[in-house]
Amino acid sequence: MVNLVIDIGNTFSKIALFDNRKLQEFDTTIDVTEQTISAWFQKYEIHNAIVSSVRKSAVELETYLSARCRYFRFDASVQAGIVNHYKTPLTLGLDRYAAVIGARAVMPRTNCLIIDAGTCVTYDFIDSESNYYGGSISPGIGMRLKAMHTFTGRLPLVEFNDAFDSEYGQDTKSALVSGVSNGIIFEVTGFINRFYNKHSNLKVLLCGGDMNFFDRRLKNSIFAGIVKTEPNLVLIGLNEVIHQHNE
After folding, report:
1. Active site members
2. 95 appears as a binding residue in the annotation
3. CATH code at position 191
4. Is 21 annotated as a binding residue?
5. Is there a domain that residue 247 lies in?
């Protein structure tokens, strides 16, 4: 069973090909078009496809895919083994929900905190019985730097320095980077610590574009033994939805 999985995010999109549950090929693009997708159909015999989009309606893309394979529409009504207690499921970000489904597939019967570090940093928890109650959304690294520049009169817009590793900055630019990098690490470790103290055998799954920044720092902390990176967690979750339909 060959599955085409498409995740349209806020900044960029991911396209992946799975053979059953094995990731075979992966690509990142700014935008997903019919021309982009047609190349995959020319190269592979694709049986199923699924799309998750947080940016815009994917009606045209859905129509294109439906004409070429079995297409699965992904939304918050899909269960895929998750007991979803979110009070407003129609407002739940599909990338968040797909990551929760992916966490259940990667770490079944485990208390799991999913941290997706992208444009925003999201925190979602699924317990060992597959119950999902909700999560938290916080500004990401780039958004924090832009906000300080936008909402002040004199603070400059600075590029984030991933290698910065100091308790303080020694000029305005490094002070901004220090505030963002240290502040967001304190935030992340605070979330982990809260869930770790409340739930036994907690595991943390990291994904998202800024995943490596957090991974390096968390693996030098007391949480090193419970943190795992899974860059394709959303794609894994979407692929799992197809399998749930076919089983």
Report:
1. 95
2. yes
3. 3.30.420.40
4. no
5. no
